[in-house]
Design a protein that fits this description.
Helices cover 75% and strands 0% of the residues.
Length: 219
């Protein structure tokens, strides 16, 4: 059992270096074409561990919905929509809190050993995808749109493609390496516990900041 726990944690955390150490393909050169934007999106697959873990968890949770390929696609579509909305000035409120809750909610569902119905999964992933995408738009996409829409579209294409591949890879690893063919499998539930714990920590951290602000204790 101890080896299984370590293997699951290592399997999910193994995606982390992809986002943390991604090298920008443009090497600081100005981006002027669709291809430049595409390479930029591929070079920055994930911004932050909260996004990274959620993308991986979507791929794992989707295994048990009967929509292994479609459900992650719904998340990607909504994520890109949220990113595009933010890039045009249409933001969403309380993004960081909702992103933290997304880890807690989906992680808890996976931890419970119960699978979501296909329709429910698509709705849940899409809702949270909008907020994750809005956060992306707040950080990177706004820089791309400043140099042209063709660059932004290329960036979104690369970003969506690499995240979809990461999501499918997470599900494939869970299915083939750990043989977790059921939502009740211990490996899947341990992964849910890990991500739910991260979500709980981030949620408490965000709410703590709000409380301190309201009490006038934080500047």
């Amino acid at each position: 059992m101890k080896r299984q726990v370590l293997a699951v944690v290592a399997g999910v955390a193994g995606f982390a270096p992809m986002g943390a150490f991604a090298h920008h393909p443009m090497s600081g050169l100005p981006m002027e074409t669709f291809t430049h934007g595409l390479l930029s999106g591929i070079g920055h697959p994930i911004l932050g561990f909260d996004h990274l873990f959620f993308v991986a968890l979507v791929g794992i949770a989707a295994l048990y919905t009967g929509r292994r390929y479609f459900a992650p696609g719904a998340y990607i579509f909504a994520m890109l929509l949220g990113c595009l909305m933010m890039s045009t000035g249409v933001g969403l409120p309380a993004k960081e809190i909702v992103i933290s809750l997304s880890l807690l909610v989906v992680g808890t569902i996976v931890l419970s050993g119960r699978s979501m119905g296909g329709g429910v999964a698509v709705c849940v992933f899409s809702l949270f995808g909008l907020f994750h995408g809005s956060a992306f738009g707040d950080t990177l996409a706004g820089q791309e749109v400043a140099v042209g829409w063709h660059v932004l579209i290329g960036y979104l294409t690369g970003l969506g493609a690499i995240q979809y591949l990461i999501s499918l890879a997470a599900g494939t690893i869970m299915l083939t390496t750990f043989r977790a063919i059921s939502s009740a499998a211990i490996e899947a539930r341990l992964t849910g516990a890990l991500v739910a714990g991260i979500g709980l920590f981030l949620t408490m951290e965000n709410f703590e900041g709000i409380v301190f602000d309201l009490m006038g204790w934080a500047t």
